Amino acid sequence: MRRTRSTAALVAAAVVAGGLALASPAYADPTPAGTFRQLVGVGSDTTQDVLNALAGDTVAGQSYAATAVKSAGGAGLASYDAIEPGTGSTTSDITTRSGGPSFLRPNGSGKGRLALSESLTGDKFPDSTGVAIKGQVDFARSSSGPSFSGSALTYIPMARDAIGVAVRGSGLDTLTVAQLHDIYVGTLTTVNGQTVHPKIPQSGSGTRKFFLSILGLQDSDLAPSVQAVQENQGNSALTEDGALVPFSVGSWIAQNNGVAPDYTKTSVAGGGHLAAIQLPGDAGATSPVTTVNGKLAAVDAYYENATFGRDVYNVVPTRAIDPTSIFFDKDLYDVFVTSGSHTAALASDDAEKVIAAFGFVNESYNGYVNLANKHVKQGGLEETGVSTAVPDAPRLKATTGDASLKLSWTAPAATALPLTDYRVTLTDAGGAVVAVKNVPATTTSYSFTGLALGKYTATVTGDNLNGTGAASTWTGSVKYKSATTATVATTPYGKAPKVAVTVTGSHGVKPTGKVTVKEGSTVLGSGTLDGSGKVTVALSNHLKVATHTLTVSYGGAAKLNSSSATATLKVTKATASVASTAPASVSHTARAKVTVKVTATGTTPTGTVKVYEGSRLLGTGTLSGGKVTITLPKLARGKHSLHATYAGSATVNAKTGPVFTIKST
Question: Does the structure show a pLDDT above 60 at 160?
């Protein structure tokens, strides 16, 4: 069940009635010692105790095993403190996986996000002198938003906290933003007669980052007198009158109610308390806390203030909570993400009771990941000096098939962070997403089948840890398949070759339209299909005598893709016919003339004609218009048997004509 929110007053009453506040020794990190769980989190001091409780561990003597948050598959949380439990050491190591490396405990939101980033890149934590921690961290606890732009990490809001100012001394009961600004830059050293001693949480603290943003300051603006102390530990910060330090209100409530390990109550006994703050735009001051049944509780107006209220986050790799990604981690998704009908395990009723008990205010957006919600943030890898480049667009090729689309591409140029995957998205003519597919970097093609006919747009991007690269786009129509077949018989020169073409369509669609016959880029002929999808295309009768490779292309129709076929046409030489005309007799003193006519279907032969008597050459002539008249030499008296021979040409075969006779007298 999702609630809009749980009020702090009701929470405080529940804490008292339920007996959650037990004054017992504190435990932290996964318990018992040596326990390893699947979903490892590090970072923020502000949310470490509530995450420890949500993990089912023992916190301040109270066991939360009965309400441990787990994924649907049973994966549990392993939340590691910002400083070593018991000793308070900031230089101790942790081991988060069985057999994994030991590395410096991440202290604060910034260090937690850095550890998560380097768990993804495989770099060394916390710097080049540290230890490579690839795969050792799954999420980071964070009480502040991104420090680096990008989309690699998603900041999932869990609850609402607020920044208060813990002070010691009655002169600091009420403060303004202007006073706080001047105190921390060193221009205001006394308030109400009280000398001030400003403190600030350690570098990398989310509380420090958020507090400075309230004041409009950077670390470099802080006065040299400002002392760094461990975040959310009043005992070590409020050591003298006039001391003040920014503090998580949720953590202050949890510690003083005995729900979280006590790093503050001793200072409270010495006069430490949270100052009332004049919130921007208000005439008077507002206290961050109130008392309900003897226990501290949050003041909603302070938590919801846009300046001093803040969301606290669980930071995860963006691709790990994307159900379409090959890097999708369902366990991580189940625990942290609320989307549609899916509710994060951290947003269950039991979990929100625990969250409220630790001084935070539950909000309806617990687990939201849609960036349309202003409470959801995205940021880049939190690692100084790492390349932020994303891949260029791959080179894309698209081929349509039978209600299908095949995309193939070549990899873009390499980037500093290696290519990890490709994302393929298909949208319809109205812009609605039809399908999204994520494939490994080793895959360079993908096919969509069973598509409805229509216009589509496909995009392909290459991704790395920084996020999604530039897109290559194809837009076109998806239709049914057509198939083209073509046959053509061997044809002599001079006779028009005829290409018989048949086009068929799948899904019972009858093809309509034109077909075109080409040789290379030269169009040889075209025709329009009849009702049965057939057409015969007649080509020129003067194609070169040779073997021709023809491409027969169907241009497609409203429901059919184009298709093509090849056919081999062999054009042979034409067959000649030779006819001779000569006088029946001639005087032996005269020279007879023989007229030879050579014909062939569809062409007028050219070339040479010779007249023989047996093997003896009597005369030679060149055809003109298919004819030639050859004057013979004087023939001896008697009967002569002669024949004419055509030598042939590039387009007509050679041919010898019939024997004819001339009588010489």
Answer: yes
Token duo for residue 171: 């002169």
Three-point CA angle 341, 345, 346, nearest 5°: 115
- The Cα–Cα gap between 534 and 376 comes to 62
Q: Which two tokens stand for residue 539?
A: 């080509």
Distance CA 139, CA 38 (A): 11
In b/e form, how buried is each residue of 573-595, taking b as 16+ CB within 10 angstroms? bbebebebebeeebeeeeebebe
Percent of the chain with pLDDT over 90: 93
Q: At 21, is the pLDDT very low, low, confident or very high (cuts 50, 70, 90)?
A: very low
Residue 151: other Cβ atoms inside 10 A: 16
Q: Is 359 exposed, middle or buried (0-12, 13-18, 19+ CB in 10 A)?
A: buried
The answer, as to whether pTM is greater than 0.85, is: no
pLDDT at position 241: 96
Q: Do domains 395-477 and 482-572 have the same CATH topology?
A: yes
The dotted CATH code for 164-293 is 3.40.190.10
Question: DSSP string spanning 218-259?
Answer: -GGGS-TTPEEE-TT-HHHH--STTEEEEEEHHHHHHHHTTS
Q: What's the average model confidence in pLDDT over 44-68?
A: 95
CA atoms within 13 A on the CB side of 55: 29
Angle between helical axes of 177-185 and 206-215 (0-180°, round to 10): 110
The phi, psi pair for 202, rounded to 5°, reads -60, 160
Residue 24 pLDDT exceeds 70: no
**Mean pLDDT, range 167-190, rounded to an integer:** 96
On the question of pLDDT at 475 being above 60, the answer is yes
**Topology, domain 576-664:** Immunoglobulin-like (2.60.40)
Q: Is the dihedral of CA 459, 462, 463, 468 positive or negative?
A: negative
Q: DSSP E strands: which ranges in 411-481?
A: 421-428, 433-440, 445-448, 454-464, 467-478
What the block records as the tokens of 271 is 């006069």
Sign of the Cα torsion 466, 470, 472, 475 reads positive
* C-beta separation of 620 from 647 below 8 A: no
Q: Angle at the Cα of 123 (from 119 to 127), degrees rounded to 5?
A: 110
- ∠530-532-536 over CA atoms, to 5°? 50
Q: What residue spans define the domains of the chain?
A: 8-158+311-379, 164-293, 395-477, 482-572, 576-664
Residue 15 three-state SS: helix
Q: Provide CATH code, domain 482-572.
A: 2.60.40.2470
Q: Contact 363/160 with Cβ under 8 angstroms? A: yes
Average pLDDT score, the chain: 94
Q: What pLDDT does 88 receive? A: 87
Q: Which two tokens stand for residue 298?
A: 């949050």
Q: What does the block give as tokens for 160?
A: 């609402």
Radius of gyration of the chain (CA): 46
At 430, the pLDDT band (50, 70, 90 cuts) reads: very high
Long-range pairs for 441-448 at CB < 8 Å and ≥24 separation?
441/411, 444/394, 444/408, 444/409, 444/410, 444/411, 445/406, 445/407, 445/408, 445/409, 446/406, 446/407, 447/401, 447/404, 447/405, 447/406, 447/407, 448/404, 448/405, 448/406, 448/407
Q: Residue 600 contacts by C-beta under 8 Å, 6 or more apart in sequence?
A: 494, 574, 575, 576, 577, 652
Tell me the C-alpha distance between 146 and 154, whole Å: 9
Please give the pLDDT value at position 27.
Answer: 54
Q: Which letter does DSSP use for residue 357 in this model?
A: H
pLDDT band at 1 (very low <50, low <70, confident <90, very high): very low
Question: For residue 368, how far is the Cα from the chain centroid?
Answer: 21
